[in-house]
Amino acid sequence: MEVSVALLLELGVILIALTVLGSAARRFALSPIPLYLLAGLALGNGGIAPVPAAGEFVSTGASIGVVLLLLTLGLEFSIGEFGASMRRHLPSAWVDLVLNATPGAIAGWLLGLNAVGILAMAGITFISSSGVIARLLNDLRRLGNRETPAVLSVLVLEDFAMAAYLPVLAVLAAGGTWWQALLWMSVALAALGSAFAASYRWGHHVGRLISHPDDEQLLLRILGLTLIVAAVAEHLHASAAVGAFLVGLTLTGETADRARAVLTPLRDLFAAVFFVAIGLSVDPKDLLPMLPVALVLAAVTALTKVATGAYAARRDGVARPGRLRAGTALIARGEFSLVIIGLAGTTVAAIAPVATPYVFILATVGPVLTRFAK
Question: 147-173, pLDDT tens digit by residue?
């Protein structure tokens, strides 16, 4: 088998760069996420040191990184407790939708976009980044905080909303009718609801089937199941992240403890690749033309996300400092917003110039604000 010298060299450069940046971030007790994003920007097309040979590997690794981040996050909770938390936070989901989709829709209208463009902008400002936030909560050691279940409930309910939203946007952006869009939305919601119900009802059997005394076998079984479930969820436009999170929720007790131990190094590697991939997907020159508009929109929707998180945390009886931590944790946008840009950008060219810098600003600034939230 022929080995690509360029691929190996570029991957080595990326990993060394991440090592230096990660060490610098840890020295000052910061999350390395913003630095990883900036590294990706510098290494992408239009950056100071492009890595074209490693692009395909980084893109594939990014998908695996999101899956592993949400899988390990799900391992921290039981499906019964989390199901109860989600039911309690249905009002939070409505507050989230109104507060955060509205600014995007208004921005799309002011920019003169058509109905598909306005719908896309609403989704871009609505959806937080599950991948960024999952890593951020782990970096800041807040998984055990009282406000964290509220944050995760909001994230998962957002992903459920994406199961309805993405099929509609994809069909309309491709020139389909509203009836076709509603049909695919119904299929996706029914499949995701069935998967969640099955996991809630019979998920405890999964742990017994997956469990094995050998760590290698345990790792292979968990990864195999998770990737299959994530692929099915993604095919239904429901989000691979939700599928992986559901798998994590079904594993409890000793199986969950051992799963965390064997998955953590792999998760950390591919999570770093995921953040680099966000930066690689952005050309620096695309950030400049509509930067003032993106900054205003980012400021408005950062405040509306803080209000959303504070409301959700208050429903759990969390004190004021925890409400602020919950709100700032939800600020970051990332992979889902970039997917929406990709879906709608081919038919509404005016979206990418404002949405791309908007996503990059919040993906970078969000973790910093979360770190210093008291």
Answer: 998 998 898 888 778 877 888 887 888
How many angstroms separate the first and last alpha carbons of the chain?
54
Q: What is the chain's mean pLDDT, rounded?
A: 85
CA distance 66 to 134: 9
Q: How many CB atoms lie within 10 A of CB 265?
A: 9
| CA 342 – CA 219 distance, rounded (Å) | 33
What's the chain's Rg over C-alpha atoms? 20
Interval 214-232 mean pLDDT: 90
Return the percentage of the chain with pLDDT > 70, whole number. 93
Checking if the pLDDT of 297 tops 90, the result is yes
Query: How far, in Å, CA of 77 to CA of 87, rounded?
Result: 15
Q: What is the pLDDT of residues 19-32, one digit of tens each?
A: 998 888 888 777 78
- Residues 112, 295: Cα–Cα separation, whole Å: 19
- Which of 224, 268, 228 shows the shortest CA–CA distance to 33? 268
The pairs formed by 220-225 with CB atoms below 8 angstroms and a separation of 24 or more are 222/71, 222/247, 222/251, 222/259, 222/262, 222/263
Using alpha carbons only, what angle is made at residue 345 by residues 344 and 351, rounded to the nearest 5 degrees?
Answer: 100
| Cα angle value 96/90/71 (rounded, 5°) | 85
SS3 labels along 239-302: CHHHHHHHHHHHCCHHHHHHHHHHHHHHHHHHHHHHHHHHHHCCCHHHHCCCHHHHHHHHHHHH
**The tokens of 347 are what?**
């038919």
Confidence of residue 104 (pLDDT cuts 50, 70, 90): very high
pLDDT-derived band at 108 (thresholds 50, 70, 90) equals: very high
Report the alpha-carbon distance of residue 319 to residue 272 in Å, rounded.
33
